[in-house]
Structure formats: structure tokens, C-alpha cells
Amino acid sequence: MQCFLFCVKVKKTKGAAATRREGTLLMRVGMGYDVHRLEQNRKLVLCGVEIPYELGLLGHSDADVAVHAVMDALLGAAALGDIGKHFPDTDSAYEGISSMLLLQKVGDLLEAHQYVIDNLDVTIIAQRPKLLPYMPQMVKNVAEALKIEEDQVNIKATTEEGLGFTGSGEGIAAHAVCLLTSLMELPQAEADLFGRNCAVCKGCERCVADE
Ligand SMILES: [Zn+2]
Questions:
Q1: C-alpha angle 114/32/155, rounded to 5°?
Q2: Structural domain that includes position 88
Q3: How far, in Å, is the centroid of ligand 1 from the Cα of 72?
Q4: Which of 121, 126, 172, 189 has a Cα at 20 to 30 A from 54?
């Protein structure tokens, strides 16, 4: 069997420094990772759900560690940096803000850059409390914020068997992986099916080619 990698065409984009592999940028994967410390007198908010617990996560915003990992995965896949770049913790505008609002902004940013989300997979690492009862609401919140279906979002929780900072209950960590499709790289007819909106485009290669 012939490996398709040998068939990948490499073209130099006019005026651009980078080479783009033609037809290979349809799907883009991203990963995100975040950690927050557990402290007293803070709320525990995970994927927009306030979970009853004696401790909560410390941070500039509501410290929703799971949503922070999701946003970094999405921004990473789109090569748009990270949440620190878009929502710096030195900006008082983000003090105590619900991370779900920031997630909506990331969703809007992806839309403006003509990306659609294929799926998201999230792992929350916490020794306590038990998160299973809150999972359905977490999935619902994330799907709603990103305007995608619930079956495109998977959220799971695990412990680290008492080991490390999550095991000792000092903090909670979260990992997220996502897959995006770039509508810019899709043939016009297929992109139209996804409702690509060139009205919001800041000027891409396709716009230039269509002129
Ligand atoms: Zn964070």
C-alpha cells in the first residue's frame, strides 16, 4: 500500500514565509492543560457547574480549571495562542468572571476565523469530590457555550490514586483535546454546507482567490 505522505503536495504560498501542505490543513488538533490550587472560602466551579465542596479553586477568574483547559485546546488548534494572551490575569475586567463567558468568546473567535469544532474530550483530575453526578450538566454547559451538540463533548474525571498534588487534595488539574475543521480549506460547496460566513472574514487566501 502506498503511503499518502509521499503524495502530499507542498506549495509555497505567495508572499508568505511558511510553506503550506495543500489539502492537509482541514483538520487541526489542539491540547490544553491547566491546574488550580484548592483553597478555603472559594467556590468550586467546573464547566460552569458550582459543586458543593468545602474548598474551591483559587484564581483571577472563577478558576474553572476544566474550561481553561478547553479554551487552551481550542486556541491551540486554531494557532491563536492561549487564554493568557486573550484574557490576561492582569486585566481587572476578568476578575471573578465566569469562565463560561470567556469560553463563549473563544467560540466566537473560532467562528470569526472560520473554524468548526468537531469534538472535545476533557479529563478532570481530582481526588475529591466525586464529579460524576455533575457531568451531564457540565457537558450541556460547554456544548451550549460553543453552540455545538452534546455528543461532540466528552467530559470525564479521574483520580491519581492519592499521588501528587491532585491526590493530596492541594489542587485540581484538567486536560483537554479538541479537533477543529477549517472551513477555509474546504472546497467552496462543502464549506457552504457548514455555513461558512465570508462576511466576518478579515481577508483570507480564499477571498483573495475569489476576487
Ligand atoms: Zn486556569
A1: 90
A2: 25-210
A3: 9
A4: 121
In the block, cell 470567556 appears at 102
As a whole number, mean pLDDT of residues 54-75 equals 97
- Write down the pLDDT at residue 137: 98
Alpha carbon of 203 to ligand 1 centroid (Å): 32
In the chain, % of residues over pLDDT 70: 76
Instruction: Kindly give the distance from the C-alpha atom of residue 4 to the centroid of ligand 1, in angstroms, as a whole number.
Output: 39
Residue 94 in any domain: the answer is yes
162 CA → ligand 1 middle, Å: 22
Q: DSSP readout, 153-172?
A: EEEEEE--TT-HHHHTTSEE
Q: Which three cell numbers stand for residue 210?
A: 475569489
Domain count within the chain: 1
Ligand 1 center to 170 CA (angstroms):
15
What CATH number has the domain bearing residue 60?
A: 3.30.1330.50
Instruction: Let me know if residue 12 belongs to a domain.
Output: no
Is residue 29 situated within a structural domain? yes
Spacing, Cα 47 to ligand 1 middle (Å): 12
Q: pLDDT tens digit string along 92-121?
A: 999 989 999 999 999 999 999 999 999 999
Q: Find the 81 Cα to ligand 1 centroid distance in Å.
A: 15
Length of the chain measured in residues: 211
Assigned domain for 100 exists: yes
